[in-house]
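quick one if you have a minute, typing this from the bus. below you get a single protein, a line of residues and a line of whole numbers that encode the local backbone shape. could you go over both lines and see whether the tokens make sense for that sequence. anything you notice is useful, everything is just below.
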Amino acid sequence: MAQQHPTPPFQQDKIPMPGTTGQMSPTPDHGEQSYRGSDRLAGKKAVITGGDSGIGRAVAIAFAREGADLVIAYLEEDEDAQDTKRLVEEAGRKAVLVRGDLQSPDHCRQVIDTAVRELGGIDILVNNAAHQASFPSIEEISDAEWELTFKVNIHAMFYLTKAAVAHMKPGSAIINTASINSDSPNPSLLAYATTKGAIQNFTAGLAQLLAEKGIRANAVAPGPIWTPLIPSTLPQESVENFGKQVPMKRPGQPAELATAYVMLADPLSSYVSGATIAVTGGKPII
């Protein structure tokens, strides 16, 4: 029998940015009870940004259960980060937390240096952390908000990737979280959607640039996914009906993306580079 997932309407109150898992109703499913590993990433060393909650937590659980040790970068959500660390350690793998703001190029380099020092190297980089905010008009987007979105969503991806590539061997993988907004931008998420388009382009160019080094670069483009980002950044009406706009008529759960990241990280996917995997509840991306 197919697993049943929550469907709108959702009675979820607005929560302060950046939001935490414990404030959400219903609680997101990160695969805590469902994901079963099979050593597809045995012995690998991975960095996941935004790994404390949402998609990042689901990827952390899956990677750990597939045999990888992790560095988990997060902003300030200490309780969520500790919960993710516990889940990784329960899978018998190492979890190192790095708290801080990825707007800073120096902090991005610190994240990678920590992975090299604590894990002994880096085989997989998952650039997943993101900032978004909703505005009904361009006049309401401040200069600071526009710059913040670019610094977190795309500039940090460049700094992290540049630092990581210096330590990556042939067979390594970079996975960037893009979005359905890369191709179908939501006008109320203008800054966020613009950065997601940049991420898809960055990934496509990066795959070509790194091919001679034997390093693969791919992206995952999620549709509406039930994470703390949603009730902390979207208007109440949008949260209540979140996911209703796609053919499956519901948001995806973070657990439903994990296998896409595992597939792209798996050494057996050695001919997959420059691809974008859509996880959108049936809505095509062009």
Summary: The two ends are 32 Å apart (CA to CA). The mean pLDDT is 96. The chain has one domain: 37-279.
